[in-house]
Fold:
Amino acid sequence: MSIVSHSSTIDELRQALGDKVSVNQTMREHHSKDESFHLATLPDAVVYATCTEDVATTLKICNKNRTPVVAFGAGTSLEGNSTPIYGGVSLDVSQMDKVLRISQEDLDCTLQPGVRRKQLNEILATHGLFFPVDPGADATLGGMAATGASGTTTVKYGAMKQLVMSLTVVTPNGEVITTSRRARKTSAGYDLTHLFVGSEGTLGVITELNLRVFGIPEVIAAATMQFPSLRSAVDGVIEVIQYGIGVARIELLDSDAVSAVNKYSDTNLPEQTLLLMEFHGSAESTAIDIAATREVLERHGGSGFVQTTDEAERRKLWQARHDTSLACRSLVKNAKNFATDVCVPISRLSDCIEETQADLVASQLFGPIIGHVGDGNFHVVLSVDPEDHPMVERMEQFHSRLVERALAMEGTCTGEHGIGMGKIDYLVDELGNEAVGVMATIKKALDPNGIMNPGKIIAGTFF
Amino acid sequence: MSIVSHSSTIDELRQALGDKVSVNQTMREHHSKDESFHLATLPDAVVYATCTEDVATTLKICNKNRTPVVAFGAGTSLEGNSTPIYGGVSLDVSQMDKVLRISQEDLDCTLQPGVRRKQLNEILATHGLFFPVDPGADATLGGMAATGASGTTTVKYGAMKQLVMSLTVVTPNGEVITTSRRARKTSAGYDLTHLFVGSEGTLGVITELNLRVFGIPEVIAAATMQFPSLRSAVDGVIEVIQYGIGVARIELLDSDAVSAVNKYSDTNLPEQTLLLMEFHGSAESTAIDIAATREVLERHGGSGFVQTTDEAERRKLWQARHDTSLACRSLVKNAKNFATDVCVPISRLSDCIEETQADLVASQLFGPIIGHVGDGNFHVVLSVDPEDHPMVERMEQFHSRLVERALAMEGTCTGEHGIGMGKIDYLVDELGNEAVGVMATIKKALDPNGIMNPGKIIAGTFF
Structure:
């Protein structure tokens, strides 16, 4: 629901962009929400941009009329990041879905923001290349950059922060800037690339990305191992990382998560604390990495080592991991997922998870835990019926305590989902009024009319 | 020379900070320049800060009085980055030189900005750890972060941009902010860490850094190989990187550079295009990496493979590489070094270097070339007598053409030295008025009185 009328904006957009502007109810509903628990809100109109100029035209008109603009990709975000809470225009870039250039020599690619992760990797594969960031969902790359996403391979390859080399961005006044050259490194001026990565559409709209890519490894081997306790698994992972052993993925599932996965995905994994791993390299180097990892983990009590290089088996394993939230949701009637996303220094990860598990029991909540353990990031997959108000309240209180716990351990409220509308209050708890004040100063300077995704990241940004 | 009088500022600083404020001529001269060709300019006073509060006190007083403040570490920058061109206060943080915390489990360390690179690595070594960024000079870590420095190991470990996890910064109004928590990753709000990395003291003063560190590898092996041509060496490196072979350093020297190094450092390297390499890992993994690298490079015409794991030999080799600029300077009477720093996509590196070599000949300039070839970054080490005005003019024209050439190849004017006062005009050529306009908007919003290192990065920033 919009708090102001934007009919003249819509008229002007129609004159400039014709059929690309829609006020169809179904279209507006599709753009009213993401995959999160947060309330849906309708935009007044949807603009389907097909090029950077469409985006610039939209922003110029909206800026003049002070109409909110929220960029929209695949709608897979988890904190209401793309929900138009003040109405206005949902600027859909999903039709800007071309990969514009791939360079095998420079190991980079240039693409439009609506390209999705799986589509990108299918195209890159024909060149022997891949893009590693894997948040699970088949998100758009523009959305992944705007959210500062990461995922299961971040322990080896880094997050979007590390792999976005340059962005073309339309600023709120409709100017088009490119944040960096295509050279692998630069120290030329302020790092605008990183300012826009993770800015969740509050400073401008990304219309082109240049990303680092990697050669597809000769060998990709997956492996699993079970542990007598959470702490033994985490201690093992800490040591693997200390030794610099090349793990490409190292994911933790607690026994509840394994049990949910087994039921949902027809897998037969041991229902204990489990590590799912992947190794990338040559036949020789992966053999060395696997042997070293196994040795370290067995010393920490790991057992039942199983390994596969079969692609179908490997894909099934990771699909099962990615389907954890669906698996958990299927266990509770009318459930929606509420994803927590704290990340702590790895030395505190066992403490944080153990205290959280005890809190789950005390709170009478069912919350399997999955973790990007190499990064210290874990999710409690809470499945709650939104109509069950006592349970929703218990969940919200549990979540507040979880964030407090993570912050007390020098952690963050969000490792990879962003602040969106769901974690605005925690941002101040995490970084303090002064640091958030610096963010607000930047926001106000670059978007003086407050049109870009108002109400996200920083409170009170609908001026 | 200051353009305004700052005597009342100095009085106030003395009242607040006592003996930490100096107007001694020798001290002021020491803070008037860096290691570059650029003209020296005296600050009106030097403040020796010993803690974050001293920095905050200094900024508050200077901001009130609109007195310029330029942070100063080791003075090893190469673009006049720390030269107080409008006078005011040189804020020396070199006495803030404590390592505050080292975590083996989290592989990070927290330190004050005046800690120098070699000092840090001596301390880290007692914990079995090291910090890889190696720009050659024994710079302070605060200066390296502010400059966005990188160096010979960036091909494997990344630049300061990748390895600074969080910063404590004093903003121009004297507020103290910490840009991020100590968790390994976060997507909480705007990436202030990266905004300050590379901002060259124009937005605030860094008073604490949290850095990623790594375990010292079991084996460190250095190797050299010579090539019949520059292009054959670069093509070989491109293939090594495409295959994802783990090289920790891969540095190119042209024959002029090798010859200068041999004379200066008493080495006996073959005076041809040369690659200097280093491999980090276990005994097994480095053996695999070395064999794979050698095979690829031999296929591209590389020969004379020599390898050593002896620490003294290895150190001598890298010291010789780092002394290239001294070596070149020693060949020209009364010479000063003028360092170029372009960086291009690696696919264009051979073209860029070959055209540059031809231009050197046409310009009657002596300029050995050394390159961080894995990153596409190279330096022409120009040694010029500043009193030889015709040569200085030829050098300046050559440098303009070099930057134009790099920009035409999608490169940057500076891979690692920063913009400082030397490359301000090129920044606009590189990124355009609109992108530099966004930088200027941020600068003006965060430093409305323009006190922070005025005249650097963005033209006209002494408001």
Summary: Chain B touches chain A through 95 residues (CB under 8 Å).
